[in-house]
Amino acid sequence: MRSHAKLRLVAFLFMLQTGSRSFTVDQVLSFPSPENLTASPVGSTIAWTFNERGVRNIYVGEAPDFKARRITSYQQDDGQELTNLSFSGDGKTVVYVRGGDHGSNRGAEPPNPSGSPIQPRIQVWSVAVSGGPPKLVGEGDDPAIAPDSERVALVRDRRIWIAPIDGSKPAQGAFYARGASGSPEWSPDGRTLAFVSNRGDHSFIGLFTPDQPIRFIAASTSRDSSPAWSPDGRKIAFLRQPGTGGTPRSPITRPEPLPWTIQVADVQSMAITTAVTSGKAPVDPILQNPGSINFHWAADDHLVFMLYRDGFPHLYSIQHPGSGGQPMLLTPGSFMVEQMTLTPDRRFAIYNANTGSDRSDLARRHLYKVPVNAATPTPLTSGTGIEWSPVVTADGQTVAFLSTDAQKPPTPAVVALSGGTPRPIGVDRLPSDFPTAQLVIPEQVSFRASDGVEAHGQLFKPAGGAARKPAVVYVHGGGPRQMLLGWHYRWEYANDYGANQYLASRGFIVLSVDYRLSVGYGQAFQFADNTGARGASEYRDILAAGRYLQARTDVDPNRIGIWGASLGGYLTALALGRNSDVFAAGVDLHGVHDRLPAVNPALMAHAIVGDGITEADLRQALKVEFESSPIAAVSTWKSPVLLIHGDDDRTVEFHQTVDLRRRLEEKGVKVEELVLPDDVHDSLLWRNWKSSITAMARFFEQELQSKKN
Predict the structure, then answer these.
(1) Dihedral of CA 643/647/653/654: which sign?
(2) Does the predicted model carry a pTM greater than 0.85?
(3) In the chain, % of residues over pLDDT 90
(4) CB atoms < 10 A from the CB of 113, how many?
(5) CA atoms within 13 A on the CB side of 507
């Protein structure tokens, strides 16, 4: 009781010092989060999902007003995802997947974060755009609707099944093929199904036509993936990468990028030609949009794709791929293209990028339109907003997208393809007590690490209060991410943005850091040397952020905290272990603490028999990976920490937190914990986000307020 009373007193005094009344965590996380935006192949209908306090439902809107209309009626914060939205060819039905953890790194049984006594399933459903109860198509994932709008191919138990779209009959196995079959793609005439046949160390592109033997396109020892049919159904483009194996690389050197090619196959003859090859740059990955294929067939036999070839990820196209031509750069400039789609006539690409007339657009996204045969992009949006996930209605009149800014939470929006003023839709779903006007507008800042690398960040400054305020460094997860000058386009990072706004409302200065590994700042920054288990060089940017805050006249240098999740949790733990003199308290959400498992055990055998790797190499690798781990810094860890982790995490083992807790207790470090039973890496339950952020804020108020000079 005394501890609760102390927390209430601290919170009350804090409110007086900030000079303003804070909103609640519930309020700032109450925004309806839109995802899965898609457009019908006919007419002018769009569909998307809203996640409203964990209750996920599908909405549709039609021109001209695009008024949001809900077509499902789920009512619980039960942690069951809605993903893979797609329209049938006739535009009358939406097919989707309910359940699963599509953000995890490895497959497992469906998560059950709500503790339901009935085991959840991963299921494909269909629902009429006009309304009515959803119909179960079948158990499975990764649905692909046939062009006739009557059948759905889905993946279950390493096989492809086909079921009627209305669920009137049970799904039937489409065919037998050794290995794991997935990634189904129907031919334009609906007669043939292309798929990926994964055989472990290699994979094929297979073609299934009823009553015919399965054909494999140019079978090899390579890993073939991402089949994409040409509009006339005569060709398939696919990605080819080397099969696993080869001479092991020394674990102490930076891994070399794997070569790749885009191949184009003639479906009739099964002959292939090479359309594009990987470049000679130190880093030249081919980029893939989440949830979509790598390539898009455009008008006049163009193939459009994204490459990271000139220092930034950009759109390229090639006409008559395989004929010997070179890719044309469509979007030149020092910026990142992130997402793209084609107009219905396939003559223009609509994309978003972190560029614009304002220097701060580096930390935003705006929409552009570019012909597939000329590098002449034109903007569709501008200003202080952030826009992503563009789709174009089938009538070719409207671009629908998701939009936000620093204060207005994400919402769908539309703009004419010819240009004009964007118009938000679905705004009536925003709760009346959402604290829009109370949110601060972050500013873009930069600072240099000890090795001279310039890092970037977004600074949240509360108004009023004490002259010197406590401060918190926020560290995003994932590595290849970028935080923005507004609400983020991913739900988990939008929640983090809300958490940082809440901390600012409580009087904390917050610095969100884009450290090396982050996207949006170019090749050298994203693919920096000696990061992660090879030396954790990105930690220098985190320490630089702490030093930057210490040097500010509005920050109390003795009251700086740090928090982050996943890779952000890893860097948080490094900060607390290595520099408790800078970071007085921290909150570590599902962080990695022991990097040693990154060593491939198979390398041990090669060290014994030779193969170019010595025992000294392995010893050095183990030494570097241990020193890159937070467990190596426990001996100098003094600052208190709150550990938060879901124990069904499929990305970072829960044992990482169990082990760190034991080590810190043995050292005498103050540790608090919040365990989320049966939840996964990025919590599927809204109420778990609320409890985690509430616990974090209380922890910082308790630890940093008590250290006030």
Answers:
(1) positive
(2) yes
(3) 84
(4) 24
(5) 26
